[in-house]
Amino acid sequence: MYAGAAREAVFSKPEVIRRINGDFVALALRAPSVNRPDSVPDKDERWLYERINRAKLAPQGIGVLKSDGQVLAWVQMFDKDQSVLDFLEHSLKRFQETADAKEPVVTQRYGRFPSDESRDLIDKEKLPAVIADGHAKGKSCPAKSGKEPVAAGSILARLVGRALDDKGKPVADTVNQEHYAEDQFGIAPAMQQAVAKALANEGTERVRLPDDFSKLCATHAHLGHIDVQPCLCMIKGKAENKGEWKRCEFWAWKVEARNETTLWQVEGESEVVSDVAINGKGVHNVELTWEGFIDVKGTRMTQLLLSARGKEKLEFAKDDHPLKREKKDEVAFLPGGRPVDVNAGVRYGIIGEPVAGEEPKAAKEPANGSGDAAQEIPEEARRQFINALGGAFLVFRDKVLDELKVSDDQKKKLRQRLPDVVKETMDHFQKIEGLKPQEREKEHQAYRQKAQEKLAAFLKETLKEDQLKRLRQVELQQEGAFALGRPDIGKELKITDEQRKQFMAVVEEMQKKIEPLIKEAQSGGNPQEIMPKVMKIRKEHEGKIEALLTDAQKKQWQEMLGKRLDLDD
Asked: Is there a contact between 448 and 437 (Cβ–Cβ < 8 Å)?
């Protein structure tokens, strides 16, 4: 199960909780991992998320799985409260019927249970041994903690927030998200270094901490679900909460210098006001006073403790919502949640500690940041975000670094940049996950272009001319003949207008052949069977494009590609 609206509506009922605790194992999955399984670094965990992704009907819902990862049933909404119990009974019966099944089981899917049954799905993807046999001795399951992965060297900060009643006491109801909030976020090594640098320059009674750090902490301190985050922007001018920071200042002063660490006391104020516009109209204003402590060792934090108190006003679709117009149970409107109207005092607390496995020696790194946190990002994870961003992002592959013969200093600069790039990309995918395919693709292309431009400027200052030339060759090798459609390549090869028209005709022909396969995959087809067909069609049309070049252009094109570097292994 995943999606906050489903959690609140379904798991707030005692009879449902009793039934689940008695016959099921409840799992709450992170929506970004389910909707973008390619962002999950561990390949075995990714397999399970991919299977759930193929089974789901929309970006949120509830599923019932067997222990082997096969999805028995998937539901988006329910007809009424009783339907939740009926769905659990139905799923348990299906589990008993398929307990000894040797063949893949059928996934029954419902837009609304039980009245709206969608097309069934049979997923024939073979079960990985690690799921069939369990993780090897000494290796823990990456999903066991339920925590969002953060880059090595980061501080993992956990936040809890509570709404207060008229007497200033925490509201007893902790099921609804406007009364109780939990969140977590990472503070990357680069941001820790910025904080340490500010503290190292203390020359007055108080030191102002970097605004990026202050806003990072304050951004997560809000009640309600993800769509009401005051400064959230999915699509500029369309799916955007128009938040404005009135102020956000954190200050610190030294309390105690110990043998290895220095303790700093923190105080601050933050205020953000917002017109909520994503999935429902309203307002969201949060005004807080902060206090706490930061323990610093070298250029890294060893502990973060913050508390905040203030007031919060949250109105979300309170005057225009189906639950106000129609007499139906809340479970009938899971994607839209329910109307929210809160104007109360609030308290927040944040505890941050280094991620497990971080070596103390990392805290002794000099202020210029010689850490190598990127070493902890698996090569497979790098492939995923490189595929998503394309172009010169290949520079983050180990094999490409070796090919470019980068110096230790260059490698250090590149690897220091990698964790932030990965984090930014994961945040981007999280923001666009709920959009329609065309809107999502449009937003992704805009982000991709901007990310490539930023990287190009960075590489121009970091790499030598011959290294940039070789990186471009490897980049063109990966793009293949489709790079001939790029304006810069076309200009260099003196591609004529007639050739360009012929190129476009070939691309359109290819798209017509691929489009039905993509639709099949989106409708529940097996990607493992479909993708080889797509790649075969792509390869055939690459050959057709290259055939349109003159002999002189073909020779020049091969020179532009340079010596082949195999990156497929």
From this structure: no
Query: Own/partner pairs for 357-362, CB < 8 Å, 24+ apart?
Result: 357/152, 358/152, 358/153, 360/297, 362/153, 362/189, 362/300
Rounded-to-5 percentages of helix, strand, coil across the chain? 45, 25, 30
Do 87 and 73 touch, CB atoms closer than 8 A? yes
pLDDT > 80? residue 1: no
Residue with tokens 């609804």: 176
Q: Which two tokens stand for residue 82?
A: 């009783």
Cα angle 275, 277, 283 (rounded to 5 degrees) comes to 30
- Angstrom distance (rounded) from CA 148 to CA 225: 17
**Other beta carbons within 10 Å of 569:** 4
Neighbour tally for 497: CB within 10 Å: 8
Letter string b/e over residues 289-308, b meaning 16 or more CB atoms within 10 A of that residue's CB: ebebebbbbbbbbbbbebeb
Q: How far is CA 227 from the centre of its chain?
A: 15
Residue 566: phi, psi to the nearest 5?
Answer: -80, 115
Q: Per residue in 258-295, pLDDT tens?
A: 888 999 999 999 999 999 887 778 899 999 999 999 99
Q: What is the CA radius of gyration of the chain?
A: 26
Tell how strand 282-297 and strand 300-316 pair up: antiparallel
Q: Around 305, how many Cα atoms within 13 Å sit in the side-chain half-sphere?
A: 7
* Token pair recorded at residue 45: 């965990």
Contact 388, 38 (CB under 8 A): yes
Could you give phi then psi for residue 165, rounded to 5 degrees?
Answer: -85, -170
Identify the DSSP state of 61.
B
The secondary element (H helix, E strand) that includes residue 561 is helix 551-561
Q: Is there a contact between 208 and 198 (Cβ–Cβ < 8 Å)?
A: yes
Containing 287, the helix (H) or strand (E) segment is strand 282-297
Residue 231 has pLDDT above 80, yes or no: yes
Contacts of 18 (CB under 8 A, 6+ apart): none
State the DSSP code for 228. Answer: G
- Are the C-beta atoms of residues 236 and 450 closer than 8 Å to each other? no
Which sequence spans correspond to the domains of the chain? 4-133, 155-364, 372-463, 469-569
Peptide bond before residue 437 is cis, with ω within 30 degrees of 0: no
Residues 6+ apart with CB under 8 A from 143: 45
State which H helix or E strand residue 304 sits in: strand 300-316
Q: What is the DSSP string of 439-504?
A: HHHHHHHHHHHHHHHHHHHHHHHHS-HHHHHHHHHHHHHHHGGGGGGSHHHHHHHT--HHHHHHHH
Is 118 exposed, middle or buried, given 0-12, 13-18 or 19+ CB atoms closer than 10 A?
Answer: middle
Of 101-110, 274-283, 314-323, 426-435, minimum mean pLDDT range: 426-435
